[in-house]
Design brief:
By secondary structure, this protein is mainly β. It is built from one helix and three strands. Strand 1 and strand 2 form a beta hairpin. The chain is elongated and about 70 Å long. The termini are far apart. The model has no long low-confidence stretch (mean pLDDT about 80).
Length: about 110
């Protein structure tokens, strides 16, 4: 059906005559073959809508509107050494604040 700016390729198959397949909502099966590396978060919004049957229109590069405040796509780094760890996380490299004098440990 098409290809996006990340190199992902999108396909569809008419399954309305195949009674054994019941996973389609529109009588067709839609899928994506990811470019290297495979990253599901790298599907642009237009193609995401098409993949989830929100629209039947095939997105084109001309229809894509980019706003001035939009950032470029960043891959999901969860599970890698570059993953985000907020302050206070055990894996964070930032030092955690020491407890103040207002804390007193309870002992039974």
């Amino acid at each position: 059906m098409g290809q996006d700016e990340f190199g992902n390729k999108y396909y569809r198959q008419d399954v309305s005559k195949q009674l054994s397949y019941s996973g389609s909502r529109k009588g067709e099966r839609r899928w994506v073959v990811y470019a290297n590396p495979s990253d599901a978060s790298a599907i642009p919004p237009g193609w995401h809508g098409w993949m989830h049957y929100r629209t039947d229109e095939i997105p084109s590069e001309n229809d894509t509107k980019h706003w001035s405040w939009e950032r470029a796509h960043q891959p999901n780094m969860t599970g890698t050494s570059q993953a985000y760890h907020p302050a206070g996380s055990l894996l964070s490299k930032q030092a955690t604040a020491k407890g103040g004098d207002d804390y007193e440990a309870w002992t039974p």
